Amino acid sequence: QSFFFNRPVTELIAQRIWPTIILVIVAQLLSILIGVTLGVLAARKPNGVMSAFVSVFATIGYAVPVFWTGIMLIILFAIRLKWLTLSGSEDLVHVILPAITLGTAMCAALTRIVRTSVGMEMNRPYVLFARARGLGEFHIFCRHVLKNALIPIVTTIGLQFGALLTGAIITETIFSWQGIGVLLIKSINRRDYPMVQGVIVFITFTYLIVNFLVDVSYFFLDPRIKNEIGSGA
């Protein structure tokens, strides 16, 4: 029971969870779209300009804090250009700036993982053998390289989902996005301890469920794991 609202904690979390889910999903999709694309392009030409760009992009993405990115986006797109609204969560248009802010930080890590994983698979002997058979580069990449490189990529995406939930606390506060992040901050300021405990337990439980689903996905992504389990049984 919340001290401040005098209502059940689960009821209050249920009201605030959907804005956070929308924000996290949009940020995750943005991170996957940009991260996988840049990582693949860099892995195809490891000594090219794109690989150097990805290295710089990943370094900046790691170094720049989320709150600074959010403030810069507000100044540029909301105050100077007036293309987007400053804050709020009433419309899907409001999700653009916070999703970019949240997704950019995650995108840097995913780009580096994709480049490394795909680059390692491109140097495997089976790729050389497939080329010797006359298979096209697109076929080799889609049917063999990308499939074998999915394990670390899926692992990173799963871990990022939990990081997005915790990172959403800062992003929601900057953009007044009325999700569980803002609820947590306000509950801390109000010393509403049951509410704080409920939100933290919810984030932890969600993180564990996502990681469990990622572990289960290995069984379907890599046939070798399925064979090892079968032989062990």
Description:
It is built from 10 helices and no strands. The chain is mainly alpha-helical. It is flat. The mean pLDDT is 84.
- Category by helix and strand content: mainly alpha
Q: What is the strand content? A: under 5%
Low-confidence stretches: none
**Rounded Rg:** 21 Å
Helix content: over 70%
Termini distance?
A: 47 Å
| Anisotropy-based shape | flat
Helix tally?
Answer: 10
Largest sheet: none
H/E series: HHHHHHHHHH
Q: What is the typical, i.e. mean, pLDDT?
A: 84
The number of E-state strands comes to 0
Keywords:
233 residues; mainly alpha; 10 helices; 81% helix; flat
Topology:
Elements: H1 9-44, H2 49-63, H3 66-80, H4 96-122, H5 125-132, H6 137-148, H7 150-175, H8 180-190, H9 193-221, H10 223-232
Helix pairs in contact: 1-2, 1-4, 1-7, 2-4, 3-4, 3-7, 4-7, 7-8, 7-9, 8-9, 9-10
Summarize the structure.
By secondary structure, the protein is mainly α. The chain has helices at residues 9-44, 49-63, 66-80, 96-122, 125-132, 137-148, 150-175, 180-190, 193-221, 223-232.
